[in-house]
From TrEMBL:
Protein name: Branched-chain-amino-acid aminotransferase
Natural source organism: Paenibacillus chartarius
Residue spans crossing the bilayer: none
Family the UniProt entry places it in: Belongs to the class-IV pyridoxal-phosphate-dependent aminotransferase family.
Pfam families according to UniProt: Aminotran_4
Co-factor requirement: pyridoxal 5'-phosphate
Amino acid sequence: MTIQIRIERTTAPKPRPQASELGFGKYFTDHMFIVDYAEGKGWHDARIVPYQPITLDPAAKVFHYGQTIFEGLKAYRTETGQIALFRPDMNMKRLNRSNDRMSIPAIEEELGLEALRQLVLIDKDWIPDAPETSLYVRPFVIATEAALGVSPSKQYQFIIIMSPVGSYYAEGIKPVSIYVESEYVRAVAGGVGHVKTAGNYAAGLKAQEGATEQGCAQVLWLDGVHRKYVEEVGSMNVFFRLGNKIVTPALTGSLLSGITRDSVIHLLRHWGLEVEERLISIDEVTQAQKDGSLKEMFGTGTAAVISPVGSLYWQGEKLTIGDGSTGELTLRVYETMTGIQTGRIEDPFGWRVALD
Ligand SMILES: *Cc1c(COP(=O)(O)O)cnc(C)c1O
């Protein structure tokens, strides 16, 4: 298949923000990618155009029934000046699994990867080069057909936008406090918890507000059926070091299959460590905290890569993990993952994909 992407360059490039003011997802680059879908015609008219608002009919199905999915990955400028993505094929595969669950037509993986490559290269000067900064890439699909019947849309747009993001840990990697949520649940197996679809995140905002009020950075979600098994931390997967074993919740259908999660499991096993993917209850976690076998806990996701957990709030109690600081394994995983992503260290897994 030859992939044709039409290119219309901006005539009015925007000023670049300072590295210090980047934050997360506040600034957007000069260009965006769009491809349309129409029933009978398939995906067509792939193009890179100046970053701009899109116009949709108020009846577009995405507004009413949330037929939409997204992805998130990062482009890095390596120490040798190369531009690289981290396992982008995994994002395209997950995007199509999400599409399938949300009754959205599949997008050829090669088209998605070529769109990513060309878009990142066109806006490569937007990739910040200060340590630990990157260009966050947000592909997403929306149902654009103007019709209020509850049925799969006959029209879609697949769009990619990009945002330079600052260092997640401006003052060094730092543990966060986590609120164990007992009132709200995020998802149940059979639903869409394993899909990066908008509604999951809107549904989580209320719990996040509660966590913030308690002085916590994120929510720890428990499963929706038994209200007992640990699922995820905010929008990150979660790992526990129990003695010398590492445990992470199994992919039961209600949690997201993180690419960082998968990479961390590979890495830990590569180091000869024992990793268990299984159910882990909040009781097991609190018991391990009390008897001292819970040594470390961390979240994994594209944005923060690794987020150490310093304490858990559960049933009015604050439980400190280890000595409350970033654990030794957590730090090693963080350094290695970011090292592979940015080319600081060798990549034995072939995860870093150079674009130029
Ligand atoms: C995106 C996401 C993750 C992390 O996935 P990565 O591929 O590692 O970025 C975990 N949980 C949820 C709910 C997510 O949306």
